[in-house]
Amino acid sequence: MIFNFRLLEKHYTYILFYSLFFFSSGINTGQAQDLGFSKDTTTAVVPVLPPDSLGRSTPRGTVEAFISAVAGENYEKAAMYLRLDKVLKKNRDKVRLAKALESLLNDGTVFPYSLMSNDPAGKTDDNLGPNLERIGTATVNNEPFDILLESTNGKNGEVIWLFSSETIQRLPTQVEAAPIAPLIERVMPDALNASKWGGVPAGHWFGLIFLVLLAYLLAWAITKAVLFFIPLVWRRARNDPHAGIIKAFSLPIQIYLTVVFFVVCSQEAGISIIVRQRFSNLTVVVGLVALLLLLWQLLNTSTRYVEKRMGKKRNQAAVSAVLFLRRAAKIALVFVGIIMVLGTFGFDVTTGIAALGIGGIALALGAQKTVENFVGSVTLIADQPVRVGDFCKVGDVVGTVEQIGMRSTQIRTNDRTVVTIPNGEFSSLKIENFFHRDRFWFHPVFRIRFDATPDQIRYLLVELRAILYAHPKVDPSSARVRFIEIGTDAFKLEVFSYILAADFDRFLEIQEDIYLRMMDVVASSGTGFALSSQTVYLAKEKQPSEEKAAEAHEKVRKWVEDGDLQIPAFDPEYIKDLQNKIVYPPEGSSVYKNEQKDI
């Protein structure tokens, strides 16, 4: 047997139909019956009609019963599933028509039973008339057409489905008179063709087994060849995660290709429609298994990749969440797969789905807090407002994050106590993370005595800002000192700058050094810090040095005469000269001494 692209093109309808089914989200719910509710049950009476004795009440029932009659070689009964108008009844033998239809179905494409409507009303969303149902396709004289069923009324007024008169009219005379033997019968021994099993020559059953093996080997060879050449063409396919994704696709694609090749080859070889339809639901199930296996493999590959990355970052909370989500997704996948398989074999799963839905709602309501905490933990892991080891403020709790679990987060406070916050509550609180700040805000307000003169204030504005520009641990672009207010008991000078420090302890060290230097400047100006007017001191207050005040006045006068007063803003060249003039750590400190030794 030669398999080529023309063969695929010939059977594109069948392949496309299987593909759309496997990747659709809808689930066949099987034998769901029309309940026939009426808007007003007190006035309307729905007559109960007896079911059709030949099983023609639904499209699926008609096809199953026709093939069953053909398998039993009861063509008189098979003809009762054909809708024959007066012209067909007069001019053509109905038994010959039944045999011709069998030959047409053998050569054509018939949908699996699970994809046929089992509703007496048929499908209403197939863009056909309300009384028509498509159950396959066929080709006569190189002209493809749809095999249709048509609904009509039986003898007792009940709705029955028959092969439409339009389909019967397309049956050619030569098919009726001398059908060509299919390929499977031409290659099988006469002994197997003469012996019949289930109304079909035994050669068809043996041929079916051979085609399964052939389809599998063909799919295996193609899959292996593609997997071999992809890394040669695409280098990224040699490493994770691409290699894992490609590997996840290999087995499901191989199974799916086996189904496609089997369906196409069995039809091309002329395997009887009786045999093909008997295994049609099984081929659908195998295709569904391929799809579910693909999702399963992708789930494993993606979650393991994420788990590996989170493990390198030592994010145990994320690893726990990934493991939990993987288990939950696998359970859901198994449940959906069972529902789809049961629906494929004709079981009514509507009631079961409804019951599980109600049970799920009840379970969710009962475990509301648990679900809330789990969703909160997923939010924390995905958003990552804090990580283990971060110093933060959550609500009114300040401390270091020690653990982020699936239910709660633990914070070690400065008092060395451990506060446990449920993740549902944690994710809804205001979170302030101090760990990621790159600099610290230094913004004291100095209160200067009321007896300070304007020149002393000018002196302070210049010298205090000079300290900020000259200090190597202060961001010069943000540094400023401003005279902001004449208060009720003091002049107020505001300092604004950012200190470049890696952590809070380092910030405190630098802030301490700046405070001490600024205290020296205030003392050298001849004034001092103002004391609160509400404070009563019994001791005699020490007066500022008049000598230093005179020096500050003289220095400001000289700045004014030379045009060098750095108010209201410093000259950029002067700022450039000042930068890093201050030695930090200060001379005489042990840290400075150790650094000098290292140099």
What labels would you give this structure?
single chain; 599 residues; alpha+beta; SH3 type barrels; 4 domains; 5-stranded antiparallel sheet; 23 helices; 13% strand; MscS_channel_TM-2; MscS family membrane protein; membrane
Q: Strands, helices and their partners?
A:
Blueprint: H1 5-10, H2 12-22, H3 59-71, H4 75-78, H5 86-91, H6 94-107, E1 109-110, E2 132-140, E3 143-153, E4 159-163, H7 165-169, H8 173-177, H9 183-187, H10 190-194, E5 196-197, E6 200-201, H11 202-233, H12 242-268, H13 273-278, H14 280-312, H15 316-344, H16 350-366, H17 368-383, E7 391-394, E8 397-404, E9 408-413, E10 418-422, H18 423-426, E11 431-433, E12 440-442, E13 445-448, H19 454-470, E14 480-486, E15 491-499, H20 504-524, H21 546-562, H22 572-578, H23 590-598
Antiparallel strand pairs: 1-2, 2-3, 3-4, 5-6, 7-8, 7-11, 8-9, 9-10, 12-15, 13-15, 14-15
